[in-house]
Amino acid sequence: MRPLTDEETKIFFEKLSKYIGENIKLLLDRPDGSYCFRLHRDRVFYVREDMMKHAGNVSRKNLISFGSCFGRFSKGGKFKLHITALDFLAPYAKFKVWVKPSAEQQFVYGHHVMKSGLGRITENTPQYQGVVVYNMNDLPLGFGVAAKSTQECRHTDPMTLVAFHQADIGEFIRNEDALV
């Protein structure tokens, strides 16, 4: 368990800013305490500072997890967000996509969002911007990347992809061993 290096911090915050923009500071300075990000076994954890000090009493070999896992660094140095970060990203998301009930199950099974399943999309969403995917009842289902901008979505045919799948709540069941 260690703080992120400057390069890791840069890569991690660039990925987070694709989804929540400048709201990253709201994750760190919260009214219920001070939070930080720590790296353990290539995974980035979001943890309250007093809990981090308690976790420091456990040897690295025996420490499996602490706080909430936001994602992991690949061997190539890229960062991939995990679905366990959804509860923290959803309230601060700048761009959102809502899917119709008929497309909700398809997204939760790991498929991309097509225009035919698109319920709504945030105005002025640029292409390739990170989005949080909701159902029509405003329940966050996962996150992805906008394949088309809001203006392009209005004029495309129903079988066009409008959002690429990145992670969804169905991963808790499909990949439960890898999410630790």
Poorly predicted segments: none
At CATH level 3, the topology of the largest domain is Nuclear Transport Factor 2, Chain: A
CATH architecture of the largest domain: Roll
Question: In the residues, how many domains can be counted?
Answer: 2
Number of separate helices:
7
What structural class results from the helix and strand content?
A: alpha+beta
Q: Shape from CA axes?
A: elongated
Could you tell me the number of beta strands?
12
Distance between the termini: 15 Å
Provide mean pLDDT, rounded. Answer: 88
Portion of residues within helices = 25-40%
Determine Rg (CA atoms, Å): 17 Å
Largest sheet: 6 strands, antiparallel
Strand content: 25-35%
Please write the CATH class name of the largest domain.
Answer: Alpha Beta
H and E order:
EHHEEEHEEHEHEEEEHEH
Describe the structure.
With 180 residues, the chain is an alpha+beta fold. It has two domains: 2-84, Nuclear Transport Factor 2, Chain: A; 95-175, Roll (Archaeosine Trna-guanine Transglycosylase, Chain: A, domain 4). It contains seven helices and twelve strands. The chain has helices at 6-20, 24-28, 49-55, 86-89, 101-108, 150-154, 171-174; strands at residues 2-3, 29-30, 33-40, 43-48, 68-73, 79-81, 96-99, 113-114, 118-121, 130-135, 140-146, 161-168. Strands 1, 2, 3, 4, 5 and 6 form a six-stranded antiparallel beta sheet that branches. A six-stranded mixed beta sheet has the order 8-12-11-10-7-9.
